[in-house]
Amino acid sequence: MNITAQDVNRLRAETGAGMMDCKKALQESGGDFEKAIEYLRKKGQKVSADRQDREAKEGAIFAKVAPDASYGVLLELNCETDFVARNEGFQQLGEKIASAALAAKTRTLDELKALPLDGLSVADTLTEAIGRIGEKIDIGKFSLLEGEKVVSYIHPGARVGVLLVFTGANGLDLAQAGKDVCMQIAAMSPIAVDKTGVDPAIVEKEIAIGIEQARAEGKPEAMLEKIAQGKLQKFYKENTLMEQDFVKDPSKSIAQYLKEYAPALKVTAFTRFNLG
Length: 276
Prior knowledge:
Elements: H1 5-15, H2 19-28, H3 33-50, E1 58-65, E2 71-79, H4 82-85, H5 88-104, H6 109-114, E3 116-117, E4 120-121, H7 122-133, E5 138-146, E6 149-154, E7 160-167, H8 175-188, H9 200-216, H10 224-239, E8 245-246, E9 249-253, H11 254-261, E10 266-274
Antiparallel strand pairs: 1-2, 2-5, 3-4, 6-7, 7-10, 8-9
Helix pairs in contact: 1-2, 2-3, 3-7, 9-10
């Protein structure tokens, strides 16, 4: 049958698939649009299966926060190349998935992939996108945080994203504090809010390293534990958010900066995603 350019454009508008794929789908389905859409979905499944072993380390980070700032989501959408990551269609897909996650207050990656999106599940939408774009596309990481005041930040280039929770805001405008602390987390990559949040296994490992370093330096055995504890305190200062020097003003720690901003203001949780 004769497939017109108008038919191809209509199918392309409905599916986002390439022109040649749309033309072939219509030819294979005898001009039936529903069958053509199903053909493109099956093509997407085949491409998806063929690309399962491919690495998808490019992509972008997306964040959404509820209107009342009581919760927010952060997700990493991956693809194979930076060219696709910068594509408008890929960016729109990431925004739509993040918005769906926010609206449903999704808590896990499995729940997110099962969410409905434009008549399909998010998982099937990703499969369809793989067939359309020709690259492996998947959600690499996902996080939801709740609290008194949730703030998000996406670093230019969308390769690093941060979600954090404040307490003690007391109705204050936290736009500047939120940006400052999120940028601190993005730049300095702390492993915990404060030393109480550091994994005990990491603490044990740092003490052991400190003891061995002091012993290698010829320090007396009786002093090794004390020296290791001193090194541990330095580790906390460098790697926990509240004790880190504030990047914009190293004369004060983040804890001091927040106290000056608002006496009761504290960070209770954060998530930092780095692409890849």
